[in-house]
Amino acid sequence: MSHQSKAATDRNLPLIFLFAATLLTSASLMFVLQPLFGKILLPLLGGSPAVWNTCMVFYQSILFLGYLYAHYLSTRHTQHRQILIHTALILISFLALPLALPENTVPPTDSNPTFWLLWTLFLAIGLPFFVVSTTAPLIQKWFANVGHQTSHDPYYLYAASNTGSLIALLSYPFLLEPNIGLANQKSYWSVGYLLLCLLIAGCAFVLWKNCRGKFIRPGRINSPLQDAEAVTATDENNLSLATQLHWLALALVPSSLLLGLTNFISTDIASVPLLWIIPLTLYLLSFVIVFSKWNDKVHPLMVKLQPLFLLPFIAYAFINPADLPYWAYLILHLLAFFFAVMVCHGELAKLRPHTRHLTTFYLIMSFAGMLGGMFNTFVAPFVFNAVYEYPIMIIAALLLRPGRINSLLQQIIAPALLVIAGIIAHATVDNLLQYFDAIVIGLIGLTLLTYLLRARPVGFALMTGAIIFLALGLHGLSSHTLYQERSFFGVLAVREAVLTDEQGQPESYHELFHGTTKHGAQRLAAHLSKIPLTYYSRPGPMGQLFTEYDGNDQAWNIGVVGLGAGALACYAKDQQSWTLYEIDPLVIDIASNPAYFSYLSQCAPNAAMRIGDARLSLEKEPDQHFDLLVMDAFSSDSVPTHLLTKEALALYVKKLKPTGILAFHMTNRHLSLKKVLSINAEALHLASLIQEFQPQQDIPLVVATDWVVMAKHAETLEPLRLSRLGNWQKMPLYFDMKPWTDDFTNIVSIWK
Fold it and tell me: How far is the C-alpha of 374 from the C-alpha of 376, rounded, in Å?
């Protein structure tokens, strides 16, 4: 490089920093706003993981509209006119500041809330988010026209954009969420938005100054190197429909995979931003890598490594799930996801076009992202009764691998798969188990053989897909699923299982699953069908509570938040008044159907039913109404975080009579919920007892479970503490975390 050239490069470094800082700030604001508003909206919809997926569809849709706007603006208007139009748009967006939900925001209880949620997001953050979403393609297009030495290839600025996204995502759960409340987060975001507008103004000034005295046709490239290559570039970069569809597929599949994996992760722990951020971080990291100078070396490596990591993933996640810790399953899924998006996005980066097609390229990418989100949110829940879109997109990602088309090995492996499929199809539920081990071993063997097809995308994908869906069908048959359906709030399944009764004889029973977590069970024999089981058994904490207060609970008003199979209803007495609160109408349909569970129809046929989020429903009840309020709301294995805050606890206590009792179910595999309840109970000066129950005898369907009881006065709980029915202890005190409020929650602090 000559001294003259180097000097020119040095003189232009501030220009790069200005445009890179604008893109970084824009991306940071975008990816702080996403978990921020998702967290604000979660309490209105029971903490369902579907809230995040719906929010993602909104973000992707606005992103697409922003990219469409940038494409139209940069291809139909001169640079001066672009600046004037964009300035007007930014000024209009200030009307949406400061950020806030619309007044009297209440979700519907009698229909799917997806469209209500999208409309609420549009009213609250639509305008500023639209402006932020236009920044990446528009600022890069402006940079391509300012005459900088690197203007001919501004794609490297995309790395700055995604770096900002990563910084924002990683700072949210570890820096912003633990230290800054939601109200201040909204205020700081508004300040950051004003800073972004100033940076955009700086970029616009540079473009205006560079174009002064020149007439540049829309879409023309104002770079000496680009002018020299213009004719060649036009010839080489005429976009065919096949090329654009290829871009579409390469961007759509990772977008759908992102939401599928997010749904998997957040179902069994908690629907909180921390867990949403993990796959989204990997997704953005892939963009940073593939649009950097390292992609030429990294991409071939990813293509080679993907089949190797796919083997244990298929074996443990689909064929033969072992009793692994949750983090091991999480790592398997995250690795499979990362390699899939790295291969797809690596191909996308390889195929990026000349800068004259830059906004078209980004437009198609954003459109594909929106389509992927819409498929997961609007199509899959209505077409599939389980989360089948996730394995489907795993297969689609393998189809997009680079390689050859035909494979002789397909002709060898396909008959073997057909034989196994035939065995499964002809096997009945009674004799399936005798084939089970052989089929599992066969599928694992075939998984190893598919590695030989790694260079043939079609054969590799189809064989892998056949194995995955054969495994899913095998496990579906072996689980004796009687009914399975999907709602906005998750996948519910009723299964028939067999236990060994007290006489050592086999006995059938029904169990209810939400996701992978059991939410109740019932024995079918007439003389046993009224016995509460699992977390609500008579030997357990709930049975102890009803037994201890049996003498003075004849006319109690009792509220139960979270219906499940309805087992608690069989503690009801004729003179008592029971009100059951449930957010998911599908749960009510299942619990009310005697073909599946008969607790409600036998024990509390006249119980009042309230549909909707618990806090919103309880606010409508009279104060000092309940003698006993039972909080048993779970989304799969997670308690919605907004039901654990100090304000939520204060609401429950407000609805209790002076001698009323609040019982809180907190059984959880991953989170220490007792910390949250203990600190908030101490802050509200409530008496509290805890029992981490372990069955002392081998009683069918009596399981370990953890419960906390609270009251306004310690003497209310004294009979329970002194009873010999169970090991009730005073709640331990914790001083290592802040109380959870509606403005502040921190999931990291209670991880087991």
Answer: 5
Please report, as a single letter, which amino acid is at residue 643.
L
Encoding tokens for residue 482? 């009687």
CA-closest candidate to residue 229, choices 292, 153, 148 = 153
Judged by DSSP in three states, 587 sits in helix
| Strands lying side by side in the sheet with 577-582 | 608-611, 577-582, 557-561, 626-631, 656-665, 705-711, 687-693, 729-730
Separation between Cα atoms, residue 584 and residue 612, nearest integer Å: 7
pLDDT digits (tens, 9 = 90+) for 154-167: 666 666 777 777 88
CA distance linking residue 111 with residue 612, whole number of Å: 11
> Per-residue pLDDT tens for 51-75?
777 787 888 889 889 888 988 888 8
Q: Is the per-residue pLDDT at 662 higher than 90?
A: yes
329 Cβ contact list (under 8 Å, min separation 6): 316, 317, 321
Please give the full DSSP string across 191-232, using - where no structure is assigned.
HHHHHHHHHHHHHHHHHHHHHTT----TT----HHHHHHHHH
pLDDT at residue number 656: 94
Burial of 496 (0-12, 13-18, 19+ CB in 10 A): middle
What's the average model confidence in pLDDT over 326-349? 88
State residue 270's pLDDT score. 46
Strand partners, 485: 492
Residue 726 DSSP one-character state: S
Q: Which residues contact 294 (CB under 8 A, 6 or more apart)?
A: none
Exposed, middle or buried by CB within 10 Å (0-12, 13-18, 19+), for 703?
middle
Q: Which pTM value belongs to this model? A: 0.73
Q: Give the closest residue to 701 by CA, choosing from 582, 543, 551.
A: 543
pLDDT for 222 equals 44
CA-only gyration radius of the chain, Å? 29
Distance CA 280, CA 729 (A): 42
Residue 383: count of CB within 10 angstroms of its CB: 11
Distance CA 604, CA 627 (A): 17
> For residue 351, what are its two tokens?
């195929």
Residue entry with tokens 């879109």: 389
Angle at alpha carbon of residue 259, lines to 741 and 591, rounded to 5°: 70
| Other Cβ atoms within 10 Å of 555 Cβ, number | 11
CA distances from 300 to 148, 297, 403, 407, 453 (A): 31, 6, 11, 21, 17
CB-based contact 263:516 (threshold 8 Å): no
For the residues 560-588, what does the mean pLDDT come to? Answer: 91
Q: What is the mean pLDDT of residues 635-639?
A: 62
Tokens standing for residue 139: 């600022």
Q: How far apart are CA 250 and CA 286, in angstroms?
A: 13
DSSP code for 102: P
Question: Using CA atoms, how far apart are residues 350 and 354, in angstroms rounded to an integer?
Answer: 12
**CA–CA separation, 236 and 247 (whole Å):** 17
- What CA–CA distance (Å, rounded) separates 475 from 359? 46
CA geometry: angle at 206 spanning 205 and 207, to 5°? 90
pLDDT for res 691: 93
88-113 pLDDT tens trace: 999 999 988 888 777 767 776 666 67
Q: Residue holding tokens 């907004």?
A: 642
Residues 52, 196: contact at Cβ < 8 Å?
A: no
**CA 675 – CA 680 distance, rounded (Å):** 9
Residue 361 CA to residue 353 CA, distance in Å, equals 7
| Paired tokens of 565 | 């199979």
What's the half-sphere exposure (Cβ side, CA atoms, 13 Å) at 683?
Answer: 19
Dist CA 685 CA 416 (whole Å): 67
Q: By percentage, how much of the chain surpasses pLDDT 70? A: 82
Strands 656-665 and 705-711: antiparallel
